[in-house]
Design a protein that fits this description.
heterodimer, A: about 150 residues, GMP Synthetase, Chain A, domain 3, three-stranded mixed β-sheet, 3 helices, B: about 80 residues, alpha+beta, 2 helices, about 30% helix
C-alpha cells in the first residue's frame, strides 16, 4: 500500500442535454444521469446509486482486506445496500443506509469471528466513516455443507 | 453536482452551454475517512459574476451527496467561468 494520504480525482462533464460523463485516472468512463425520482431515464448510474454503490463496494473490499489480515477463510460475500434520501431541515440528504451482508464460509469456520469481521468492516469502511449517516448492518453467515 | 446544476438552472433561468466538475479527494489512514474533498465547477456561460455566485449557492444547497458528507470532512469548492 502507498503511504497516506491518498488522493483521488474525478472529472464530470456535461453539455446542456444528455449524459454526464464521469472520468477517473484509468478506469472506463461512466455515463451518468439523474435517477427516475428526479426525472432521469432510470437506465444509468446516478449520483445517488453511485453513492450507495460506493458504500457497498467499500464494505466488501474492507472485509476482504480485514479477512486477509486475520487469515480468515471465506467463500463469498454479497452486500445489499439501500440508501434513503429525505429532506431534513430543508436539506436533502441520505438519512438511512441499510447494509445487508450475506457471508458464505466453509464448513468448520468460526461463525462468531465471521460476524466480528463483518462488524469491523462496517466500522472501518472509509466511505461510511466520511458520512453523517451511520449505516445499519444486518449480517447473515452461511456455512457450507461439509 | 451536475445533477444539482441541472435542477436549479431552470429555476434561476440561468443560461449555460456546458459544465465540467473536477473533484479531488484526500484520504487519511487513521481513522479511515476522507480528510478533504475539493471541487472546481467550470461553467461555460455569459451570465454575470453575481449570477455565478447565485448558482454556486444553489448547487451547494441541493447537493444530496455533499449534504451527507460528515462534518469532519473538509469540503471546499469553487465555481468559475470557462475560459
Amino acid at each position: 500500500m502507498q503511504p497516506f494520504p491518498h488522493h483521488y480525482s474525478v472529472i464530470a462533464k456535461a453539455d446542456t442535454q444528455g449524459d454526464v460523463a464521469l472520468d477517473g485516472e484509468g478506469p472506463p468512463r461512466i455515463p451518468s444521469a439523474p435517477p427516475t425520482e428526479f426525472g432521469g431515464p432510470g437506465d444509468r448510474w446516478s449520483p445517488e446509486t453511485l453513492f450507495v454503490a460506493a458504500v457497498a463496494d467499500c464494505f466488501v473490499l474492507t472485509f476482504r482486506g480485514i479477512a486477509g489480515v486475520s487469515r480468515f477463510s471465506w467463500v463469498s460475500l454479497e452486500c445489499n445496500v439501500t440508501g434513503t434520501v429525505d429532506r431534513v431541515d430543508r436539506i436533502t440528504q441520505f438519512t438511512e443506509l441499510e447494509v445487508r451482508a450475506r457471508l458464505r464460509v466453509p464448513s468448520g469456520a468460526n461463525e462468531d469471528q465471521a460476524r466480528r469481521l463483518l462488524t469491523k468492516a462496517e466500522e472501518t469502511c472509509l466511505v461510511t466513516n466520511s458520512l453523517k449517516v451511520r449505516p445499519h448492518l444486518e449480517s447473515v453467515v452461511e456455512v457450507e455443507d461439509s | 453536482m451536475i445533477k444539482g446544476i441541472e435542477r436549479v438552472v431552470p429555476m434561476l433561468e440561468f443560461s449555460l452551454r456546458g459544465v465540467e466538475v473536477r473533484v479531488h479527494g484526500v484520504r487519511q489512514d487513521v481513522p479511515p475517512r476522507m480528510e478533504r474533498i475539493d471541487s472546481e465547477i467550470v461553467v461555460d456561460t455569459e451570465e454575470p459574476d453575481r449570477r455565478l455566485e447565485l448558482l454556486h449557492d444553489n448547487v451547494r444547497k441541493y447537493g444530496t451527496v455533499f449534504n451527507t458528507v460528515a462534518p469532519g470532512t473538509d469540503l471546499k469548492g469553487v465555481l468559475v467561468r470557462a475560459k
